[in-house]
Amino acid sequence: MEQYGKVALIGTPSSGKSTLFNRLTDSRKEITGKQRGITRDRNYGEGHWLDKTFTIIDTGGITGENIPFQKEVQAQVELGCQEADVILFVVDGRAGLTNSDYYVAKKLYPYKDKVLLCVNKIDDSTLINNTFEFYSLGFDNPYPISAEHGLGLGDLLDEVIKRLPKTKKNPYEGALTFALLGRPNVGKSSLANKILGYERVIVSPLSGTTRDSVDIQFTRDKKRYVMIDTAGIKRPGKVAEDLDKFAVIRSADACKRADIILLLIDADEGLVSQDIHVSSYAIDNNKPIIIIVNKWDLHSHEQDSQLKFTKEIKSYFKFLDYAPVVFCSAKNGTNIHRIFNALNEVEANMHKKVPSSLLNSTILKAQMDNEAPDFNGGRLRISYCTQSDEVPPTFILFCNNPNYFHFSYQRYLENVIRETFGFNNCPIKLIIRGKRNGLEELK
Q1: How far apart are CA 119 and CA 95, in angstroms?
Q2: In a domain, 344, yes or no
Q3: Is the same domain home to 119 and 142?
Q4: What's the half-sphere exposure (Cβ side, CA atoms, 13 Å) at 434?
Q5: Contact, 55 vs 167, CB < 8 A?
Q6: Fewer CB atoms inside 10 A, N or C side of the chain?
Q7: What confidence tens digit (pLDDT) does each residue in 376-396 have?
Q8: pLDDT above 70 covers what percent of the chain?
Q9: What share of residues in the chain are helix, strand, coil (percent, to 5)?
Q10: CA 235 to CA 275: how far, in whole Å?
Q11: Which tens digit of pLDDT belongs to each residue from 33-44?
């Protein structure tokens, strides 16, 4: 399929944006209902029209009324407008023109050239006349549609595709992309500069100097890399200013785009609960993590101190027992080469392929050595397994009934695969499917 740009859905609460999102992405990802203002964050999906795909961004409803979370929602909407190539301004054709529609229209006037007005909930021909009053919003040629029933979407999507630029699925194809992630003032920008060998980003002892994510392309040892320096992620209770909110949002977006996450820990301050919160941005996106213990030059260097600190890290991040740990000093430039060694090793692990014959014999032996427990009224029997082309390494297991798959047995099989095939420094993912339906999908 051809890949195109980004489309943002903007409108008042309950205008039907999430219903339209679900329709265009062929999913039920977004929650919809009669309650106003269910969506608050920006949410992303892949839209489809004929043989073309595009990124679609659903946003929270905005209004001039004083309702909870409106300030946060409007910050998300502003980012969505800046990011999008086309904006679909969705209004409720059944409810008619409201003051909130005028309020949203004023917000969209700076982006007028990329706005298409969509009059939603026009579910039958008797409601077409409801479209005309929306001309007063100042946008040309409103499109009458029904997101719920799919009516009128063909003409709208034809126009959307005309306006969207063609894009590459990966603008950094062929390069290894990694993001520097951590709480404020752990030394991300200092490390970025030391990696590059020159002062590329501002460094300051003040917490929160970096406010945006910065993509930096460079070459090292004839290999291409893209480094994303992100803003420090503050504790949720400390995120007060609009700029702080944007910084957290863009750091989360950086995690989605990166191949590998470098999670920075401050050796001088030690481990804190905020480090776990920061790591969740990478874990939620199934990204491999390398733990970088920065400012090691400020830590006491007793015998076996690195080994003791590593054990403390593994105990603290029990869900990251696979993650490599590198000790360095961004200030002094020590052990920078070890970071790249770890990056290259994790990349090799991410793309490792296991032959289906070896995988099946390993899983069969694992079941014989340790039979699955009785769970939900039955016992799991895995008949076939294969590795997909996804990253991180993803294994599809076909069984008698997915409901019999207990989480402890999943952990056991993950460990067997990891130890047998050497997936020792990146996450792996298991997908369990019923034999009949799963095999039909595979074919």
Answers
A1: 10
A2: yes
A3: yes
A4: 4
A5: no
A6: C
A7: 999 999 999 999 887 889 999
A8: 83
A9: 40, 25, 35
A10: 10
A11: 444 443 334 567
What CATH number does the domain containing 295 carry?
Answer: 3.40.50.300
Distances (CA, A) of 107 to 10, 62, 63, 131: 10, 10, 10, 21
Q: 247 and 119 in one domain?
A: no
Q: Are 91 and 101 in contact (CB under 8 A)?
A: yes
Quick check: 409 pLDDT over 80? yes
Residue 304 has pLDDT above 80, yes or no: yes
Among 350, 365, 384, the domain boundary falls at 350
Give the pLDDT mean for 422-431: 90
pLDDT digits (tens, 9 = 90+) for 88-144: 999 999 989 999 899 889 989 999 999 999 999 998 888 888 899 999 999 988 999
The answer on 345 and 391 residing in a single domain is no
Range of the domain at 362: 356-442
SS (H, E, C) 259-306: CEEEEEEECCCCCCHHHHHHHHHHHCCCCCEEEEEECHHHCCCCCCHH
In 3D space, the residue among 322, 424, 442 whose CA is nearest the CA of residue 385 turns out to be 442
Contact in structure between 176 and 347 (CB atoms under 8 Å): yes
Question: Which residue carries 């409201």 as its tokens?
Answer: 98
pTM above 0.70, yes or no: no
Rg (CA), the chain: 25
Give a yes or no: residue 312 inside a domain: yes
171 occurs within a structural domain: no
Same domain, 261 and 286: yes
Residues in the chain: 443
DSSP codes of every residue in 53-75: EEEEEE-----SS--TTHHHHHH
In a shared domain, residues 183 and 330: yes
